[in-house]
Write a structure and sequence with these properties.
Radius of gyration: 19 Å
Strand content: 25-35%
Number of helices: 5
Shape: globular
Helix content: 10-25%
CATH class of the largest domain: Alpha Beta
CATH topology of the largest domain: Alpha-Beta Plaits
Number of strands: 10
Distance between the termini: 23 Å
Structural class: alpha+beta
Length: about 250
């Protein structure tokens, strides 16, 4: 059977995250159900994702792989899967790849975007899709400070206390903080991330944007290698997995 890479968009609001769990609906479980359904439920289909997004986190470009009969082609498969998926999950592309291609382990870059809404009055059209912060933030100061986190570091201060990764060492390739009308967008790129790493970085950059921290405070938090030294964990609803890059 050919192996397909599928690209998925989803609103993570009503899901327990990407990974299949016993305590609620997951993106992975919905996709596996859909894949089994297009085969007439004659067999189970495993779907392996490139990134394990958390509860409430969204995606514009999640990638996963699955093995399906060659009776499906790249054009037909998204339509077939979408017919069995909730409206908040859509497969937007499919591509036949090598039989040993792996959505998670072959990825060389993952890109996330975080959206902060600064307007004092929350927008009903953005509920669940941004962090409604409701205060002024200095995007330029946030961008300048963020460059201190680019490169290879011990990110113990910026990972969840329950993170199970064997090493806290990660390399961030790029962080850009930009303004978009009432919003600030923070784009972060790396080969891989620790649990809650992006959201914890955002929580600390917000302290910079408020003027409550200076650059040396951010460096000190990094060097402390202690989760309690860094800022809060930013809410999940502002985070999007935007792209996964392969060789």
């Amino acid at each position: 059977m050919p192996r397909f890479f599928i690209t998925i968009e989803y609103d993570g609001t009503d899901f327990v995250g990407w990974q299949r769990q016993d305590n609620g609906d997951s993106i992975q479980a919905c996709l596996e159900h859909a894949a089994s359904a297009i085969l007439g439920h004659r067999q189970d289909v495993a779907v392996q994702g490139a990134g394990r997004t958390d509860t409430g986190v969204h995606a514009l470009g999640q990638v996963a792989h699955c093995d399906l009969p060659n009776s499906f082609n790249e054009r037909q498969l998204p339509l077939a899967l979408n017919a069995h998926l909730p409206a908040s999950i859509r497969v937007i592309r499919a591509k036949i790849v090598a039989d040993d291609a792996h959505a998670r382990f072959d990825a060389v870059m993952r890109r996330y975007r975080y959206r902060i809404h600064r307007r004092r009055i929350a927008s009903p059209l953005l509920m669940g899709r941004v962090w409604h912060f409701g205060q002024a933030l200095d995007a330029s100061a946030m961008h300048e400070a963020a460059q201190l986190l680019v490169g290879k570091h011990d990110f113990t201060s910026f990972r969840a206390t329950q993170c199970q990764a064997p090493s806290p060492i990660r390399t961030i390739d790029q962080i850009d903080v930009t303004e978009h009308d009432d919003e600030i967008w923070i784009a972060v790129s790396a080969r891989s991330f620790l649990h809650h790493q992006v959201r914890n970085i955002i929580g600390s950059l917000v302290l910079i944007g408020q003027g409550r921290w200076k650059n040396n405070d951010l460096v000190e938090a990094l060097n402390q290698r202690d989760r309690s030294a860094a800022g809060q964990t930013a809410p999940a609803e502002g985070l999007y997995l935007t792209e996964v890059i392969y060789p």
